[in-house]
Amino acid sequence: MISINMPIARDLHRKRVRIVRKPLLEAKDIEFQRALESGADTTAIVASKQSLRDAPSASAIEAATTADELKAAWDTDLLGESPYDNYRPDSNPIPNS
């Protein structure tokens, strides 16, 4: 029987979150700068950036006890499409970066 080492799986999941959130945070940084330059309200941008920063420490990740629960912990509203939806076993699930 094959078992999944959940502490390692959670760490890999967090790494995926960090990889995906990096360009999202960079885009929010640009959006924030533009808002500052134009005098627009930055409250929503700041909240969105904080949500992205908090994503790897989501309680659902730590609470996951199965691979399916961990997959379900991917926040598609915040991070976009789940990397698990199109997973191919022959692909590298964690890109080098």
Structure, explained:
There is one protein chain. By secondary structure, the protein is mostly helical. The protein has a domain at 6-72. The chain has five helices and no strands. The protein is elongated, with a radius of gyration of 16 Å. The mean pLDDT is 91.
Largest sheet: none
Q: Which parts are unreliable, with pLDDT below 50 for 5 consecutive residues or more?
A: none
Structural class: mainly alpha
* Proportion in helices: 55-70%
Sketch the topology as an H/E string, one letter per element: HHHHH
Share in β-strands: under 5%
SS element count, helices? 5
Radius of gyration: 16 Å
Estimate the global geometry from the Cα principal axes.
Answer: elongated
- First and last CA, distance: 33 Å
Give a count of the beta strands, DSSP E runs of length 2 or more: 0
How confident is the prediction overall: mean pLDDT?
Answer: 91
SSE arrangement:
Elements: H1 6-38, H2 43-54, H3 59-63, H4 67-72, H5 76-79
What's the gist of this structure?
The protein is an all-alpha fold and 97 residues long. The protein has helices spanning 6-38, 43-54, 59-63, 67-72, 76-79. The mean pLDDT is 91.
